[in-house]
């Protein structure tokens, strides 16, 4: 399982609206190629709307130039910022180690190289494996009469530059100043040496040619050592305290953790002088190396989304140690070096040069894993910073964001935002109509057919009012069941009375049947209303409709709404289609019977009632539709 996938459980976050517009480009030193590549792969899986291009392995120096020119958003670099690259900076990113590898067939004991002889081997002064100075710590090499052959990397490679710096430093400590390694090109002039075009080539050459010695990063070094049948080993390097230390992740971590906060904070980002090699901490690996992120903070990209995505990627890499440790590198998370990088990233601004990108969202987490304003009753969907202002806390059920973004506001009875003059007017109008229908139901209690219409209208108006209530399980059920029941009560009675009018108008004998009495019609309408309610209730249950949190693009609001889970969307559509189909049949029959009885209004008072009810209900439907439309628009 990948690192961030493990950490975030396949979290997917929208970063930009158009993925073609945001492509984060990085490249540079081959030293951290594997950790960076793994992180970029995860980044593409986690964040939609932005693409992270594959890491372009090359050299630190060429990558610095690419960042300066703007062809890369960020780079990996193992060396100091080179002259001629104005505006770029280096920030600690990952720790590793340079290992001195050698091929001595038949020798199983690891060679010890002390601080005096190591520089002399690489400047060509010591040329034989059984040199007396080497034998002081390695008497088992007495019978090796072969000459030492150096396999070197190019003068601009990070490996050559870092090894040269280390050798120059220990030369100076032993009174050799200036050291020949003050110029990294000295390795290129050693007689009888071999040039590997890159680190993998050096690994192959040392493994294939006996009695050679070279320098590699720990990953390529381990490849050379662990190859089947290999006689390659890594040397033990002498520590300042006189002990000999071999490369290990723990030894590298000791070196990195020994960097104090003061040292990290006072180191310049312009020349990347924060170093981890030759640490005095006991057990620290002498050739530990810190590789850097290189960026141009004033112009990471002309595309703001690329800038944000670049900062987010760099932050994620630092804060997820497994990217480093999975490939035997040292993570700088929770170290002085790592905090230096994260705190600097927080200072980078938008193109105006004033507004920081960090801190615009309540969900921007700090370097210590805390929030300035934590979500009170909710959570942030993206656990990393550099989020846009509309990205806010996702609220638990019963809480909302309207005036604040921290989910501290309990959900009120009435939907928040129900405040415009139009909405209030429509709400009050519906309330008056509900009260009016309630009054008419009482006063017309001797007219059961009219009361049936009125009860249906009352239920329908109540259904309109429930649209203004905050979401709950009860409200979700009411929003589905009440309109269906109201429709069934009203239009089934309209249909029943239209049929009776039709029969009276054309079939007087049939009309005398007790099956056309008001009581029977009301009973039939009650059955239809119950069927409507059952269908609506079944739709609610089968589609698993429940309160669900809705968020909106470019908005700081979140709101709970009634919705079916994505897995039940098809079921909801099918159930809703069945309910609509049932009502469509009733409505079609009403229209048909209305056409057949259109002349009866001149003769029958009951037909006039039907026409009035249809008109009133049509007006109420039109008003409620616009009320809901206005309300929905204001929320979105």
Automatic annotation (TrEMBL):
GO cellular component term, pick one: membrane
SUPFAM superfamilies for the chain: Periplasmic binding protein-like II
Subcellular location: Membrane
PROSITE patterns given in the database record: G_PROTEIN_RECEP_F3_4
Cleavable signal peptide: 1-17
Record's bilayer topology term: Multi-pass membrane protein
Sequence intervals crossing the membrane: 422-441, 453-470, 482-507, 519-540, 576-596
Keywords: Glycoprotein, Membrane, Signal, Transmembrane, Transmembrane helix
InterPro entries: GPCR_3, GPCR_3_C, PBP_domain, Phosphate-bind_PstS
A Pfam entry, by short name: PBP_like_2
Domain G-protein coupled receptors family 3 profile, residue spans: 472-623
Molecular function terms from GO: G protein-coupled receptor activity
Family designation: Belongs to the PstS family.
Listed name of the protein: Periplasmic binding protein-like II
Species of provenance: Rhizoclosmatium globosum
